[in-house]
Amino acid sequence: MSERITFIHSGDIHLGAPFRGLRGLSSKWAERLVRAIPEAYDRVIDAAIERGVDFVLFAGDVFDTDKPSYAHHRHFLRGLERLREVGIPVYLIAGNHDPYATWAGLRDQLPENVHMFGSDAPSYAVYERDGAAAAIIAARGFSNQSSGDIAAGMTRAAAQAACATEAPFVIGMLHTGLWLDPYKAPTSEDALYASGMDYWALGHIHKNFRFPQSESAETKLAYCGCVQGRDIKETGERGCYAVTLEQGIPNQVEFIPCASVEWEKLRVDVSKCPGAEDVLGACVRAMFDANAQVPCEEMIARVTLVGATPLHGTLARPGYVEELRDELNERYPSFFCDALIDETTTPFDKDAMRASGLFEATLLRESEKLAANSDATIEYLQQEFAARGLTLPAGIERKLGDLIERAEDLSLELLEGREEL
Asked: Minimal CA–CA distance to 86: which of 51, 121, 118?
């Protein structure tokens, strides 16, 4: 029979993380989110116990701060004690939010089923099953002091030599930005592949991400992502991975959702909505559609209204959209709209404008030239931003067409006297 192990790859729990900006909008939802992160951590523990995994890996940033509260200490320890009760070991490293030095008081309180690795150099632990080495875990916590490659020296051969044993599986664990955030404990994808490890459990990047990205390729490197989204930048499903390594079979990596509150950015086309009530209905439907794609029943959404609509002038009135948002938040208690943004436009007959020969026709022709020659447009924007000491936002190439069209519509509105300078 071939050798096989299963484990949970988690990290970036961020117990104690604040939810900035939301308390001013809704104290109810601010309090709800304070509970959401501990709940997500509990779901990681639940998944490990329900699946009867061999062990659990926490790849850094268990806490959001180097001074976590007593309550968050105790909550974390209770989860570890639940794993101890069922005989599941835990392997743990520090992250950039909870550096190794700040664990000094807590390390003595960790249950005996927990092994915490240091951050000054790679270290190793052997997971034994039935008295034999079943896996070696090679790990190093985040370190601001490291220069060069944080994974230097972390290879399969080095791990077996340090442990004076061979094992069917060798697993690496790091809290690193890799190339996604090269300023935080950097290493390279190539270096990790060349190490000979069966799997690299990575922490720090909050989005779950696998390498190679091809669905047909075997996952050798993975970021588990954070367990609970904390703001509008962390949309979609959040959770951990259940990993199965078996000799002769490609690695199996299954995503386990853990979040109880989902964050989403929604764009709602209201071009066919005759009135405000229809706009609200379209927003509610969009929120339900988005929420149906994930296991969470609760959702915070940032909704942007788009489309050419006769309602544009009404929506542009001071305070009108804010009042719509308040009414939207009364519709369904499990959803909350943190911002309702109006990006609608006035309907224009652009074909008629092009045929008119007036200034509007000239404006539309110039707009089309900008869109057709995107490279020159990007270069011009880079020069203008640089002249003002600014950096051109990332992803501008992908959004250029939409931005040109938006600028075109705003210019036409100004020409038509529908907007005040």
From this structure: 51
